[in-house]
Predict the 3D structure of the following.
Amino acid sequence: MTRPTVCWFRRDLRLDDHPALAAAAGAGGPVLALYVLDPALLGPAGPPRRRFLAAALGALQELTGAQVAVVAGDPARVVPAVAAAVGAEAVFVTADFGPYGRRRDEAVAAALAADGRRLEPVDTPYAVAPGTLRTGGGTPFQVFTPFHMAWQAHGWDAPTPAPAVTWLAPEAAGQPLVRPTSITAGPDDTVGTGGTEPHWIPATAGPEAALDQLDAFLAGPVHRYKDCRDFPAEPGTSRLSVHLRWGTIHPRQILARLGPEPGPQAFARQLAWREFYADVLYGRPETARAAYQPKMAAMELDDGPEADRRFHAWAEGRTGYPFVDAGMRELAATGWMHNRVRLVTASFLVKDLHIDWTRGARWFMRHLVDGDLANNNHGWQWVAGTGTDAAPYFRIFNPVSQAQRFDPDGSYVRRWVPELVGVADRYIHRPWDDPKGMPLGYPYPVVEHDAERKEALRRYEAITTATRA
Ligand SMILES: Cc1cc2nc3c(=O)[nH]c(=O)nc-3n(C[C@H](O)[C@H](O)[C@H](O)COP(=O)(O)OP(=O)(O)OC[C@H]3O[C@@H](n4cnc5c(N)ncnc54)[C@H](O)[C@@H]3O)c2cc1C
C-alpha cells in the first residue's frame, strides 16, 4: 500500500489551484492535512489577523469535512513528530520566501532529514517565484517598472482544480488537536480607544468568500479601477489583500481572469507590486528591518516623551488632520486601510512627526488583517524614501491637499471621524479654519505641516551633504 503523505498548510488555506496538495495527493496514499499554530508567528499577529486565520481555518475544515489537524508548537518539533506518527516520508508545502519562513523551513527540513524524511516545497504564493527574475546584468531588480515588464514577459501557469484527496483523520497526527477559535485569544494592545477590539467579519474568510469577492470586483469595479482606486470613500479596490495574505486565493486565479482592457491591466499592475516586494525582500532579507538604502539609516529621528506622545496621537487617530485620523481609525475599527490613506498616514508619521518608519510599520503589522512583511515594510520604505524605487525623500504628502483631492466631499472623513460630521465641505479637511470654531472633542493639529515639511527637508539635506562630503 502507498504510504501516507502530509500536506502542511501555511499561507495557502484553500483546495483549488494548490500544487503542493496536488503533489501530496498524487503520491497515491492518503493525505494528512496539517496546520501548525506557530507561537513565533501568532505572537506578533494582532486580533484582526488571528480572527481571520481562525475563520479561514474554519472554512478549510468545512471544505474538507473537518479533516485538518490543527496543532500548536514549534514546527521544527511538531512537523517531524506528525510525519513520524502517520508514517509519511514526505511533507509537502507551498514554499515560503520570507526571512522567518525560510529559516523555519530549513530547521524543519533538517529535523525531518535526521529521521529519514523530507520536506518537499512545491509552488509559491506568487505568480512568479521570488528570485526568478533578473536584470540583464543578472542582478535582482531594484526598480519596479522593469521588474513589471520582465514579470509580464515571464508569465505564469493556469490555475488548476482541487485534486481528489483521500484524507487521513486528524487524530492520526498523534498530537493534541486545537480548535481554530482558540486562536482569537491573545494580547490586545489597542491604545486609549476605550479598549474596543477591532472587528473583522469572519464570514468573509474562506476560499469561497475570496472567489465571491473576486467575482463581484470583476463584474464592475475593475473596469473603473484606474479612475476610482485612489478614492477611499468609493468601493474602488478589490479588498483581496487579506485573501492573498492567507492564500485563500492564489494570484494565478485572479490573473487568469483579467482581460487586456485598461482597468484589469491597471489592477494586474498592482498585483505585480506584491510580487516585486516579495522579490526584493527575498534578495535582501535584512530590509525587513533595515533601510534598503543604507545612507538613509543616518536620518535624524525624533524619540523621547514628546515623540511618544505624538506617536500615540497618530496611532489613535487624534493628530488633528482629519484624513490621517480617519485612516488610523479605519485601521483600528476594521483591520484594513485604503492604500491612498496608508500612503498619507505613513508619510505623516515619517515626515511630519519625524518618527522612525519601523515604528509605524510595526503598528501597521499588528493591526492590519492583511499584514504582510514584504508589502508592509517596503510600502513604508517607499514612503520614507529609504527603499527601492523610492519616492524621493523631498516628495512629501500634504495631508490637507491629499484629502481635498481624494476625498473631495469629505465622505470618507465623516465616516470615521464622527466629531466632524457637521462641518461644512469647505472646512472638512481643515476644521481649524471653520469660522464656527473647532467641533467639540476634535483636537487642533499636533504639528504644523508646512513647518515640519521644511524640517524634514533640512534633515534630508543633512544626509545628502554628509554623503557628498
Ligand atoms: C505603508 C503601507 C503599508 C502597506 N502594508 C501592506 C500590507 O501589510 N499588506 C498588503 O497586502 N499590502 C500592504 N500595502 C499595499 C496596499 O496598500 C494594499 O495591498 C491595498 O490597500 C489592499 O487593498 P486591496 O486588496 O483592495 O487592493 P487593490 O487595489 O485591489 O490591489 C490588489 C492587490 O494588489 C496588491 N497591491 C496593491 N497595491 C499594492 C502596493 N502598493 N504594494 C504591494 N502590493 C499591492 C495587494 O495584494 C492587493 O490586494 C501597504 C501600502 C503602504 C503604503
About this structure: Confidence is low (pLDDT under 50) at residues 187-202. Strands lie at 5-9, 31-37, 68-72, 90-93, 118-121. The longest strand covers residues 31-37. The two ends are 72 Å apart (CA to CA).
